[in-house]
């Protein structure tokens, strides 16, 4: 049986520091299964990978902010259980959370500390990435949660 080539996707890792100095990560639900995931999608023609990730974050989560040009990690998953994908993850420091956004009727969004966010996602490598976010971003925040 021939192994299918992994397709490339891009994701934003939305974060902010709350008033108590704690790092929070934003997750959204997937449209098909309702699982908690990062905002992600396919690369876009004419856009750099980090730009596509920022657009996906707006469409899926209604957020805006400053996105890093360098990926902080990647993880693998099978889209719809059939299409193997490798997702490259770009950090997005959230500065605006909109009340209305394109996919607001199709998804939920919630802020979580890194440990809780990691507990909610299914992908092993994504769990590890979320747990290590404070170190990856080199943030001076309360790392206990």
Structure notes:
Strands 1, 2, 3, 4, 5, 6, 7 and 8 form an 8-stranded mixed beta sheet that branches. Helix 2 (114-120) packs antiparallel against helix 3. The chain has 4 helices and 8 strands. Helices cover 23% and strands 37% of the residues. It has 145 residues and is α+β, with helices and mostly antiparallel strands. The longest helix is centred in the middle third of the chain and has 13 residues, at 49-61.
Q: What fold name stands as the CATH topology?
A: Nucleoside Triphosphate Pyrophosphohydrolase
Q: What's the count of strands?
A: 8
The shape is globular
Following the backbone from N to C, one meets helices and strands in this order, namely EEEEHEEEEHHH
Measured by DSSP, the beta-strand proportion falls in 35-45%
* Quaternary class: single chain
The total number of structural domains is 1
Distance between the amino and carboxyl termini: 44 Å
Mind sketching the topology for me?
Blueprint (H helix, E strand, L loop, with lengths): L6 E11 L5 E7 L6 E2 L2 E2 L7 H13 L1 E5 L5 E7 L3 E15 L11 E4 L1 H7 L3 H8 L1 H5 L8
Parallel strand pairs: 1-7
Antiparallel strand pairs: 1-2, 1-4, 2-3, 2-8, 5-7, 6-7
Helix pairs in contact: 2-3
Short description:
The chain has 145 residues and is α+β, with helices and mostly antiparallel strands.
Keywords:
eight-stranded mixed sheet; 37% strand; Nucleoside Triphosphate Pyrophosphohydrolase; single chain; 145 residues; disordered C terminus; globular; alpha+beta
């Amino acid at each position: 049986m021939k192994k299918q080539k992994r397709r490339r996707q891009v994701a934003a890792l939305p974060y902010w520091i709350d008033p108590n100095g704690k790092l929070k990560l934003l997750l959204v639900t997937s449209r098909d299964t309702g699982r908690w995931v990062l905002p992600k999608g396919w690369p876009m023609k004419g856009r750099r990978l980090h730009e596509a990730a920022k657009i996906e974050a707006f469409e899926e989560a209604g957020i805006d902010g400053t996105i890093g040009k360098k990926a902080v990690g990647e993880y693998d998953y099978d889209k719809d259980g059939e299409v193997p994908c490798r997702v490259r993850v770009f950090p997005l420091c959230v500065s605006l959370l909109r009340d209305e956004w394109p996919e607001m009727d199709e998804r939920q969004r919630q802020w979580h500390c890194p440990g809780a966010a990691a507990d909610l996602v299914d992908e092993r490598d994504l769990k590890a990435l979320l747990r290590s976010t404070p170190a990856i971003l080199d943030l001076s925040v309360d790392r206990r949660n």
